[in-house]
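Re: duplicated header lines in exported structure tokens

Our pipeline writes sequence and tokens for each protein into one text file. With two proteins the header for the second block appears twice in some exports. Here is an export where it did not happen, for reference. First protein block:
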Amino acid sequence: MLFNDPQHDIVQSNEIIALLKNPEVVSFLALHNNENPEKLALKYRNKVDFDLTKLTQILQLYRKASHKIPLWVEHRCALHSKSYEQCTHAEVAEFKARLFNGKSMLDLTSGLGVDDYYFAERFDSVTALEADRSTAEMAAYNHSIMGRPNIKVIDTDCTKFDLTNKYYDLIYVDPDRRPSGNSQVHGVEEYHPNIFEHYSLWLNHSQQLAIKLSPMVDLHVLESNLDHLKQITVISHRNEVKEVLALLEINAPYLGRTAVDIGATQTVMRSGKPEPNEPMVMNTSGAYSIVLEPGRAFIKAQLTQQIAHEYQLEAFSQHSLYLVSNDYVDGFPGRQFRVIERLNPGWKKIKKYLKANKISAINIAQRNYFEDVRSIRQKLGIAEGGNEFLLFTQDYNGNSICLRAQPILTSL
């Protein structure tokens, strides 16, 4: 469908807004709120006095957006593919806003304005800059119908915005990781705006500066290149890392890294500094019945050692991301597996075992192993599926370990 390609959106911001304001469209949406857009397009073709093709595109996007930004769908907000795909998940934005408060804040790269909607609950006034006029128009319209009069959207590139005599409690920036189109750049210095070139200026005009970055960013690069870095927060949503947030404040001591997972029923958080002086206790006895894997945010923040010490867990090796225990660990921030059987790690032996046990499909996971999941699956020639796992790792001597295991329901 065309709406999946930001370069081929045929519905522009003024068309979207005009369409959504049309009284006939408002009535139509109220009557057919949960119906299939394709079926509506066929059923009402040439039977309505508005552009049904354009409305169908919007409804298709609403279906995609209903889990990510449900309030925007509920309010029948204006959005197009690019603005939706690049916006923050609403639950992540809501959590992030709770970290701050004050009188005024400046968002240098507003986008659709999902972050700003929640920031507006914590600040008296929010100034939102957006370089793309179409997206800026939609954000302003959405804020107006969603009851956010304290957000002012300005259509301008943040590098051209005059900060003279301006000071904010918070400046927030989410640099564009696709500055030239659809291809995502990987180096922070390639983002637009270039945060390394501009962050000192922004910091001089704010009490705090928050920089949203890709989940793939190297945290050591941030710690080495950002002066006045106060904290790094790795945020995941239901165990999928969504973003890294770097917080800067002049003359503030560095507090280290925080990892957060926003789950379906609770938010789990841990803070600390990576690679503590006390090493992990290695499992040399081979006695364990539970394998534990910290959530992805905690692994990204390199807090596995801290978690191992917190719960007094042993590890397969000094840098292992799998931990072990003889019992289920209540409150552990990650996945837990109950070991069913320990297998001979040779490929032929594993294939023979699977055939003998009539296992035609199984999930595969690995940590600290010399083969990735795809390669393992190819070597074993087995399909993905079922409720069990084959876990692959190495012990402290570099010996391969293969475990047949059953996942235990956890919070992540």
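Second protein block, exported in the same file:
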Amino acid sequence: MPPKKRIYYIDNVRSAVIALVILFHSAVAYSQVFTTRIEWYVLDGSCQFYDYLCVFFDTSLMATMFFAAGYFALASLIKHGAVQFVKDKLWRLFVPFLLGTIFLNPFPNFIRATLEGKIDTSYFSYWIYNYLSSMQYQLAHSKASVHLWFISMLFLFLLVLAFLYTLAKPFFEEKYTAAKPTIIQLLCFFSIGALGMITVNTFFEDFGQWYTVADFWTTQPTRLPLYIVYFTFGIVAWRYQWADKGFTNGLLGWLVTATAFNAFHLWFVVNHFELLDRDWPVTMIHTLAHSLACFSLFMLTLSFFKQKLNVGGTLAKKLSQNSYAIYIVHLNFVIALQYCLLNYNIAIHLKFLIVMSVSALASYLSSEYILKRVPILNKMLY
């Protein structure tokens, strides 16, 4: 079993990804590509700069989140056992998902339904009669899980991991010699993820389209193979201590590779957007380009943080401790600010900067000085 040693840069990667998720959500309202595809809550003009920005950050953010979750999962499972592990995840993931779905997610859906003219009522009436009522819920075109889809998806992944652990406990607890990841191993992970995405895309016409299951759980089928692979990558990285022994060189190479693949991916998506779901060759090229861009950017991120930001100071610790709560609450601040600035005749770039900076600060302050001081939330989110 790997030693009980905290790898600070993995915590820092997770904190940075949460910050970039806030940046991404702040930018979507001003992107034509993403507002067309995902029906964002507030639409406030369009600028091609934000098309590129959103496509770039959408490529690898959540895959990296699943890697970080997988990296820390197996150690906790072995330490606590399957039963206690599942109980902990019910409390840490499923309960926040339920509470967030009931009390936080109605607000973005209320804003969108109001702007689209689908409702003309108070927020409380909407919450009771539109959001929580299944029939009216369909009329409001809500998406119940909103950004909390990640928490629900991660909970399912961890349940599957716990189930597999009970079936093959000796396999999961077997000791392995620490080693650096080889090029062949890295190529295997990339290839499995790419082939999985290509396979799934043959069954779903809309690349990246979101689907709501039972008015409750939102998922993105075409990304699912990628998330499974990166979650598994995290587990394997912990077992072989890749995060400790690997990613110590090759920063320049990954920088060049990530720059090239992401530049092509950005250009391809923005310039072939209308054909992504209509032309099979275009869809396949896009899928492969997405996989290459995601993997190269992911490897660049790990290498950069391992070599430059493998520190555990006070600020890093604070951000890591608050990252989960920040992720949960940030979207309501983002949507509220985008809505408040909707009718102001100021530059889009200024609106974006205001939304991003104020929502990030408000999310951190509400986490550090409000949520953390509520005993039940402290146990759940920190």
